[in-house]
Specification:
Layout lengths: L7 H11 L2 E10 L2 E11 L3 E8 L5 E5 L4 E5 L9 E3 L19 H13 L1 E11 L2 E10 L10 E7 L5 E7 L5 E12 L11
Antiparallel strand pairs: 1-2, 1-11, 2-3, 3-4, 4-5, 5-6, 7-8, 8-9, 9-10, 10-11
Length: about 200
């Protein structure tokens, strides 16, 4: 099916700019590490909560832009011990070097936009991801430039809300870096249903 020829990254950026919060189940796979599955919550201006499903089942991690600190409960929120860490602490970075304070959709889109400015964007067409209709887009930079170690992104944007639901990142030799699936994405969750960030 043909889709309108538009800048889906810009559409996603506008949608992200307009939302107040979101919750999603993230599934990250890479060649260098075991699969990570997290119930992820984000609230502007940058609060993050990650409840780990695997590995480290039960661990909870939160980030507050007010304190600039990460709190980690290895055995679940409000249990002992609780660690307070800097977001650049290697203990809480992903194998790909992702930091919790730069883990939201807005940070992803900023990296993609940086590649767009130094490369090419191709609208591939409509595809189905799970039960969702999505626009498949490839953004690749020219040789010699990369954003956050990524040379090429393949993204699938949900056509109903405009945000990405699958992202594949690759290095300069087209070696896969990471595949992230975003499932059960809920946008602008009512406060009463939003998991607390502290």
């Amino acid at each position: 099916m043909a889709l309108p020829d538009r800048d889906y990254v810009a559409v996603a950026q506008a949608r992200f700019d307009a939302l107040a919060n979101y919750q999603v189940t993230l599934k990250s796979t890479s060649a260098r590490a075991e699969t990570v599955e997290v119930l992820y919550g984000y609230r502007k201006p940058g609060f993050v909560r990650m409840d780990f499903i695997r590995p480290h089942a039960g661990a909870t991690l939160t980030f507050s832009p007010e304190s600039g600190k990460v709190k980690l409960w290895p055995f679940g929120i409000d249990t002992f011990p609780r660690l307070t860490l800097s977001p650049d602490n290697h203990m809480i970075q992903s194998p790909q070097g992702h930091r919790v304070d730069e883990s939201d959709i807005g940070a992803l889109l900023a990296n993609v936009r940086a590649l767009q400015q130094h490369g090419d964007t191709q609208n591939v067409g409509a595809e189905t991801i799970g039960a969702r209709e999505a626009a498949h887009v490839i953004v690749a930079c020219r040789p010699g430039y990369r954003a956050s170690g990524v040379f090429r992104y393949e993204l699938w944007f949900d056509t109903s809300h405009g945000l990405p639901i699958k992202v594949v990142s690759e290095g300069e030799s087209r070696e896969p870096i990471e595949t992230v699936l975003m499932e059960n994405l809920r946008i602008d969750v009512p406060d009463a249903q939003l998991r607390p960030f502290a």
